[in-house]
Design goal:
single chain; transmembrane helix; flat; mainly alpha; EmrE-like; transmembrane
């Protein structure tokens, strides 16, 4: 249950970060309206707050989060941007996710 809860929190955190960066990208690169910077700012603030909710130290949390971020970014590329991942995208995302699991769920002493 802890693993599912942690993974879900990582996914929500990654979505907040990606949205917070994607909206300014739309504004700067695609000519989207500047008011998109407001939800981008809110999303990035939520991202920072969400990182504090993880149950372990900051360094290990950030390292493990990076693996989930890669997986969510590839999913975003497919679902939002309409770019279907190729096998190398999928393999890279799975390797990153495996790295996250090793870092975050390895048995450790107190």
């Amino acid at each position: 249950m802890l693993a599912l809860k942690t993974l879900t929190l990582f996914i929500i955190t990654a979505l907040a970060e990606i949205l917070g960066c994607y909206l300014p990208w739309l504004w700067l690169r695609k000519g989207a309206p500047s008011w998109l910077l407001i939800p981008a700012l809110i999303s990035l603030a939520a991202f920072a707050g969400l990182l504090t909710l993880h149950p372990t130290g900051a360094g290990r949390t950030y390292a493990a989060y990076g693996g989930v971020y890669v997986m969510v970014a590839v999913a975003w590329m497919w679902l939002v941007e309409g770019v279907r991942p190729d096998r190398w995208d999928a393999i890279g995302a799975l390797v990153s996710l495996a790295g996250m699991a090793i870092i975050f769920f390895a048995p450790r002493g107190t």
